[in-house]
Every structure is written in C-alpha cells, then in structure tokens.
Amino acid sequence: GQSLEQPSEVTAVEGAIVQINCTYQTSGFYGLSWYQQHDGGAPTFLSYNGLDGLEETGRFSSFLSRSDSYGYLLLQELQMKDSASYFCAVSQAAGNKLTFGGGTRVLVKP
Amino acid sequence: GAGVSQSPSNKVTEKGKDVELRCDPISGHTALYWYRQRLGQGLEFLIYFQGNSAPDKSGLPSDRFSAERTGESVSTLTIQRTQQEDSAVYLCASSLELKAFFGQGTRLTVV
Fold first, then answer.
1. Could you report the per-residue pLDDT of B67-81, keeping only the tens digit for each?
2. What pLDDT is attached to residue A98?
3. For position B71, what pLDDT does the model report?
4. Which residues contact B92 (CB under 8 A, 6 or more apart)?
5. Is B26 touching A (CB cutoff 8 A)?
6. What is the pLDDT of residue A4?
7. I need a surface site. Which of A57, B37, B44, B89 has the fewest CB within 10 A?
8. Chain A contact present for B28, CB below 8 A
9. Do B42 and A50 count as a contact with CB atoms less than 8 A apart?
10. Which residues, at least 6 apart from A89, have a Cβ–Cβ distance to it below 8 Å?
11. What residues of chain A have any CB closer than 8 angstroms to a CB in chain B?
C-alpha cells in the first residue's frame, strides 16, 4: 500500500515563505504531485516531480528526493489568496491512480 | 467538455435510500477516479478506472458502494442503503497522464 505524511497546518504572514514537507512510503513509485484546494472548491493541479530536483512554477516550487522518499512544496511571497489546503499525491505509474496525503492547511495572515 | 462535470452538485437523501452520482470526464481522458472527502479531511480513494482494464476497487469502503464506467466516458457511483456516515463530498477526477482534473464534486447529505 501507500502512505503519505504531511503537516496538518501551517500559519504564515503575507510575503513570507512556507515549505510543506511530504514523506511517503509506497510499493513502486512514479512521481509526486501537488494539488491546491480552496475551501468549498475542487483540488487543482500545481506541480509534478518525476525526477530528483527542483521544479519551479512562478512563486511555487516543488522538490523531490527519491532516495529519501521525500518532497516539499515551497510557497514564496505568500499572498492572502494562497490560504488553502495543499495535498501531496503519489502515483505508481503514468496514468496510475493517485494516492493523496491528508493535506496541509495553510493560513496566510496580513 | 471543457472540464470534469459532476451531477448533482448537492443531494440530500434519507437514510436507507439508494443514490447515484454521475461524472462526465474530460473527453479523451483514459483514467477516471472517485474520491470521498469528509469535512476538513483529505481525499479518500474509492475506485480507479483506466481504459479497458479492470477497475481498482480497493478503496470502496463496503459492498454498498459500486461504480461503473462505460468505455472512456461517463461514470456512475452508486451507494445503496445510505447511512449517515456516507455524508461527504464525492469528487471525480480524470487524467490522461500525470495531471488530474477534478470536478466540483457532489455534496451528499444523509438525514
């Protein structure tokens, strides 16, 4: 089976940097994805890492270390609109089912 | 369609009744997923369809839950003899490769 661990909640101020860690245990691993979900909304795709290293998309970056079964999502220059839940998810093969972590609720304060 | 469409958006049902939830995936997406999300909780995997392969039903919580998919199109999730613990948002997603697109979900309330 698969299991993913991420912190339940993080609070930060506008303009700050937040790092959300995700550790996973899985039989077979293809990649790690990150999704954002605002209250009452649907999860939306943020980023994907299939290889070790850093992927940057604007203010958001995601990192993967396959040897450590670890990844993180980095949110920079935090804005109020970044207040949401962030989920890491592992896939065992391309197009394979996604297994999600429990989510990290990020609260951005003025 | 432009995105994943789910219906109904809200459903209130009496305990013991059967309900059917519908998902229209993005055209051409071979993979389709159903998840359950209780208030303030994570996404609980229910079932996964990939093309014509046998579905992965390992997440269905009981035999009251079943799902079907016709080819690479519409999917229905059926919950029989609903119970209050089934109250949740049921999310459907579809994907072609690595990026999943979610519908807005069906909020199910069992009273």
1. 999 888 899 999 999
2. 87
3. 81
4. B4, B6, B21, B23, B25, B32, B33, B34, B35, B75, B77, B102, B103, B105
5. no
6. 93
7. A57
8. no
9. no
10. A4, A32, A33, A34, A35, A98, A99, A100, A101
11. 31, 33, 35, 41-45, 48, 50, 87, 91, 94-103
- Count A/B contacts: CB-CB distance under 8 Å: 60
Residues A92-105: tens digit of each pLDDT? 776 577 889 999 99
Check whether B34 has a pLDDT greater than 80.
yes
Residues of chain A with pLDDT under 70: 1, 94-95
3 state DSSP class of B85: helix
Residue carrying structure tokens 């909780």? B41
Residue type, B44: E
Rounded distance between C-alpha atoms, residue A37 and residue B65, angstroms: 26
Q: How far, in Å, CA of A15 to CA of A22, rounded? A: 23
B91 touches chain A (CB under 8 A): yes
